[in-house]
Amino acid sequence: MKEGIGIGHILFFVMFFTLTDNFGQANVIVSGVHNGKSPTEGKRNVLKGGTTHFESFAVDLLTLKAGEKKSRMAAPKDAEEVIIVKAGKVQVSIESGNMTLGSGSVAFIIPGDRYTFENQGTEPATYYRLTFKSKSRSQKNIIESFLIEGNDVPMKSSERGGRRDFFNKSTFTCQKFEMHVTTLNKGLASHAPHTHPEEEIILMIKGNGTMIIGTDEVEVPSESLVFLASGVSHGFKNTGPEQCEYFAIQWK
User: Fold this and answer.
1) Would you say 199 and 228 are in contact if contact means Cβ atoms under 8 Å apart?
2) What is the C-alpha to C-alpha distance for residues 135 and 204, in angstroms, rounded to an integer?
3) DSSP for 138-175, written as a single string
4) Residue 24 gets which letter from DSSP?
5) Do 157 and 182 form a contact (C-beta atoms < 8 A)?
6) Is 155 within 8 Å of 162 (Cβ atoms)?
7) Which residues are registered as beta bridge partners of 180?
8) pLDDT tens readout for residues 56-115
9) Burial group, residue 76, by CB count within 10 angstroms (0-12, 13-18, 19+)
């Protein structure tokens, strides 16, 4: 006699698909504040996982000792990298040239490009490395690797403080990748809480503040990194005793 599907079978399938779904979501990065303190040497991972847009996304902090050189034979063939110098000065060599980059400077590395970082100073140098692989490759406006010295980016002053626009481009992995630095006077909010489809990273360069994330208001200490998922309501306010500065990085 044939047996039908009993309650035990149903419970098994419910548990299986629940566990499978939870496993698939385990590495999804949620909105929140992360510690951006520099390691004394070597590498420290700040966050890692998947996002709405990226199949994989990682932020690492790396510290080079005085005189130390770090070579990467090539960036991943299916991922881009953004380097942001946090402290010190490093000599950066990419396939199209080289430049000495100071604090607040940026290197954008396209998939497969080789690059070298060397600390030619007498003090440690630290930099963020963002590595990201998209769920779907952009098919237009593919760019070359490039370097930007932060001090060369002009400031557009305003009554709130100012803004320096680094770039806004389509890339190998993104329809849009935009990056700027905001300077915000004490006691002011950058803007009212809002949402947008782009995902976003906030990197505190100087000062501190508070961030509304969804329905929560959280402290954003100096050197923090904030990840904001697509569609999450957010707004930043400078609650410190002086001007603050932060990188804002958006993509979709």
Assistant:
1) yes
2) 28
3) --S-----EEE-GGGSPPEE-SSEEEEEEEEE--SS-S
4) H
5) no
6) yes
7) 165, 248
8) 999 999 999 999 998 876 778 889 999 999 999 999 999 889 999 999 999 999 998 999
9) middle
Diameter of the chain by CA atoms? 83
Say whether 12 sits in a helix, a strand or coil: helix
In terms of Cβ atoms closer than 10 Å to its own Cβ (0-12, 13-18, 19+), residue 152 is exposed
**Residue 242 token pair:** 């002086």
Six-digit token pair at 184? Answer: 């915000």
178 in Cβ contact with 251 (< 8 Å):
yes
Specify the amino acid at residue 21.
Answer: D
Residue-level pLDDT at 187 = 97
Q: Which residues of 17-41 are buried (b: 16+ CB within 10 A; e: fewer)?
A: eeeeeeeeeeeebebbbeebebeee
| Per-residue tokens: 207 | 């000062």
Pairing between β-strand 54-64 and β-strand 42-49 as defined by DSSP bridges: antiparallel
Region 136-140: what's the mean pLDDT?
60
CA distance 55 to 222: 29
| pLDDT value for 18 | 40
